[in-house]
Records
---
Amino acid sequence: MAFLQQVKDGKFLQATLDLSLAFEGGEWTVSSGAHCQLLMRGVLQVTPADLNGNEKDIVLSSGVHGDETSPIELVQQLAEGVLKGDIIPAHRLLLIIAHPEAINAHTRFIDENMNRLFKGYNEERNIDSITANQLQQAVSLFYAGSTANTSDRWHLDLHCAIRDSEHYTFAVSPYSDKPTRSNRLFAFLQHAEIEAALLSNSPSPTFSWHSAEYFGAQALTMELGKVAQFGENDLERLAVFNAAMLALVTEPELPMLWEGDKLSVYKVTRTLVKQTDTFYFTFPANQANFTYFEQGKLLGGDEGVEYFSLEGGESVVFPNPNVALGQRACLLVKKTDVNFGEQVSVK
């Protein structure tokens, strides 16, 4: 079956991963009246039938790391519902299955970590950099095509962790000088029963950061459980999040609910960067995210420096001593209280 016809039949993921089929773009209207445009392999734009000028522009991306399959399955389910007319969107959508080559290879990436390639245009040295360039262009065109009276941009970049975690689900809010931590965004996290949110304190060239920094989007990197093969994911554990994501897509506006004790919020205290090949941790490489270390505990070191846990203790997130030189080896974080104003901020 031809590429485009598979997508029209709801097989968005199947067509995206079949690299033996030449990409075939197109646009059409589904039975609900929603207008669909297949912009590139793995990138589907959806426009509601009825535009009132108040709709959001929502990017839902998955597969930036190819072995993180549960978010890919959630995006496929959403796309299939839209394509078959069973899900009627109230907002403009850009649905993304980002890196088919890495997905097929069952790896995070092919040559380099694509989720560090969203600072801007990359020299096209490999499939990861080429794909990152294409995705940045797709997002730029999507936001530029907004039909709303006032811009209301969102981007949930869906991932899952390669290790255990004290929090099964959590979100990372990228740092930006723009107002990208709205109370509506954090109310969504609570509605979705996400266990924790991590507030970054410095720029990092991830996909969600790109949308926050360049387009002022309410953007998050969402960590949804742990890496598994297709068919082995316990999607039932993500059912509440999936329902909240569906409501975000189909409802004009979500209720503004906030109970501060239901979401653990962390601030980044430090980012440890691997400077030399002598970098090391004192704990196992597969240490669970949000593991807490008491004050004064030796955490690791690099050439000429040792890292000890600061006053009050710190928790470690995303520890990876095997990253390339100059890249983040881990985040160190502390729990914090927040001010829940129009923009959420650390107290």
---
Amino acid sequence: MSEKFVVISGCSGGGKSTLLAELDARGFATVEEPGRRIVAQEMAGPGLALPWIDMAAFAQRAMALALEDRVRAGDLQGWVFFDRGLVDAAVALESVDGGELDRSVLEAQRYNRTVFLTPPWREIYVTDPERQHGFEEAVAEYDRLERAYPALGYEVIVLPRIGVSERVNFVLARLENLPGA
């Protein structure tokens, strides 16, 4: 487990990427969401692992990329903030194939036990070429994640619907007394 690896997860369109951009601007190490990177690669190429074409292939690639991200982030100092991670990809795969989460991989590759979730926030939710699913699908995804993280032993903190700077301050205040600071 790496206590310095902090996951920002939750609802699609809930402000995760904006929050990570602000953390990056403040000098923290950040890791871009695997799904967004995969969609960009697939849209520039064959498009076979796009979530709206083949969600299982997409989720499997997201799991592999999340594992690679952990290895690359291993030498970084201080907090490392992940825009989603391995659990998110595994939950997506589970929702497609109906199987159970592979707990052995998820237990061997743990993040900080405190995970921050961005809740559904209709007022800021938008679709774009890389996010084609609707708000209701995003809420269903959030519900799965909200159940999965605690079931895997993580403490979930739901982020308030406040401005990005205030959200960053909220996250940092919660992490202040945790290992990895």
